[in-house]
């Protein structure tokens, strides 16, 4: 095998493998360097997202939702289940199976597109040279006309709660519990913290989340957050804001967490503790210091709008660069760079990147919030519609939540969409497409939606922007 390539990509997560596939489709000889090893000791493609992040967490969220529906909701549908038992190890095995199927699928895509997978640690040692260090310590160098850095991110650790990977774990460890902890503490009530809380609360844990910020989900529209807080409280989640963890003590039967809140020093006793305080870019030993690759003040690789670094021929995409740490954002950046390398007009629209929190109810948003528009002095109008008035949501026994659309007061162009409710993760795509085409609330309002569907809530919210919703008082 020749050591010379058109493109070498370091990292096989969504950003890296998407870039690789697109490069190969465009006729470039492509290699991907990745060192991930799954818990069974087997090398695996897919990075954090497929192996220990997005995919396994959604598998457990789905399993826990099924259990919760059987034990707590189906009786209202006239369905009585007896002898229901929870088998957490089987749930974990199912999660692992889903992961293996998807990572195996990426491997097949590499094979079909003739992409070389170089297993080991990749390091940029020259503008056109990547050194790969295998598990046995052997080193080999490969050259390429272009190098794409897509090494992803990892969980932030804090000195006040050092991981022991047994009682105190990060989000990856929280996917491997083999029994339900009676008392579960979570440091951080962001996206990951809330999703982990949802999984284990549904299965029977008493969950307390300690959030350092004074408000929950600061980037999210406040009306959506108020609805979410009420729903989470109703589910038994104890979310404590303005809490700064100062220390932890692991004992034989659990963990004692010391923290400060507005009332002073406090303590919390739990059986397990999950640390979910954010993620940081994986740039350790990613490049030689003498290359002078520019990083910003937060440790992200500095890139321009086309993901070019300060080194000619070297690009960076995904979690190692500015912008939201979202798999789909990384995928689009990887594809954009591949197309740019082929002389095509690849681009990423950062204004229309959707966000999703897979709690119950789901939360999804795209574009700007009311607070952001007020701060910018942009005139706007809003339209809302509650799922409680949506026939499909009522039939599904999922009436909690609403759709909120924000449009420019003068042009009616859609500026933001904020949804909390059933299948918000799917519904948000309708707003994303509208915004991508510079569409208006009127465009959504005049688009016929099937009845009965959840998407009718989006339609009614668009009508409400013009104060002409049919199924609500304007």
TrEMBL record:
Ranges for domain FAD/NAD(P)-binding: 5-334
InterPro entries, A to Z: Class-I_Pyr_Nuc-Dis_Oxidored (IPR050151), FAD/NAD-bd_sf (IPR036188), FAD/NAD-binding_dom (IPR023753), FAD/NAD-linked_Rdtase_dimer_sf (IPR016156), Lipoamide_DH (IPR006258), Pyr_nuc-diS_OxRdtase (IPR001100), Pyr_nucl-diS_OxRdtase_dimer (IPR004099), Pyr_OxRdtase_I_AS (IPR012999)
Keywords for the protein's UniProt record, in alphabetical order: Cytoplasm, Disulfide bond, FAD, Flavoprotein, NAD, Oxidoreductase, Redox-active center
Location(s) in or outside the cell: Cytoplasm
Catalytic activity: N(6)-[(R)-dihydrolipoyl]-L-lysyl-[protein] + NAD(+) = N(6)-[(R)-lipoyl]-L-lysyl-[protein] + NADH + H(+)
Enzyme Commission no: 1.8.1.4
Binding note for cofactor: Binds 1 FAD per subunit.
Family annotation (Pfam families): Pyr_redox_2 (PF07992), Pyr_redox_dim (PF02852)
NCBIfam families: lipoamide_DH (TIGR01350)
Other notes: The active site is a redox-active disulfide bond.
Record's protein name: Dihydrolipoyl dehydrogenase
Organism: Halorhodospira neutriphila
Source taxonomy: Bacteria, Pseudomonadati, Pseudomonadota, Gammaproteobacteria, Chromatiales
Gene from which the chain derives: lpdA
